[in-house]
Design goal:
Number of helices: 4
Distance between the termini: 38 Å
Helix content: 10-25%
Radius of gyration: 19 Å
Order of helices and strands: EHEHEEEHEEEEEH
Structural class: alpha/beta
Shape: globular
Amino acid sequence: MEDKIRISGPVLALDNYPVSQLIHEEFAIFVVATAGQGDEPDNMKRFWKFLLRKNLPPNSLSKLKYGVLGFGDSSFSKFNFAAKKLHKRLAQLGATPLVDIASFTLSGVVMRHDIPDIGPMSEQYPHLLFNNFKTDLGLRTMSILKYLFPVPKADSKRVITFANHDDYICFRQHTYKKAGKDIELSEIGPRFQMKLYSIKLGTLESLDAADTEWALRPYMNTASKRRFLSLEDGWQEDDQ
């Protein structure tokens, strides 16, 4: 996407969103994990059941432009299946993909309640920090991720960091406050690592038919010291 799209709106679990209002939406970003063997997560079940209604007209979501970010484990045969099903169903109902389709593997997940001295969750839109995305693919990945978030206000005290190290993207979320001349950070979680699995192009109804811009292949995992998002390590400290 060459042009920046400024989107603001609420951030909700899918089952907390009044799905009957979806026909009136112009933009929506969906972040979806897969449970079990290709199942939708628990907080998506009512939303998904509504979308599967046979009486929904094929053009009922014609106003909607959407993006889907899928999380999962690529070792499963139904990797990111919930996100793929959602993408396909939205397209069947007339919606138009807003961005190309990116899939990531997810590892090292630590939920909020497992993080010691956790701070309160902020409802402010976050500022985004990206570290070590320097190749063309790295910049492409950074662009896809940043379009998931509304533009924050200048005085927002919430920060999300995506830090790349050897193609593993560490996700961290903090709030901050000034203490004299110092800045105090408070982690608000969750924590996890992401690894880019594929980027698919186009606005086709069937994800399986979409052109693949980039995909992680088995031989790439064994290539010695080969990096794709940046040629640099990403964790090296300044010599100061």
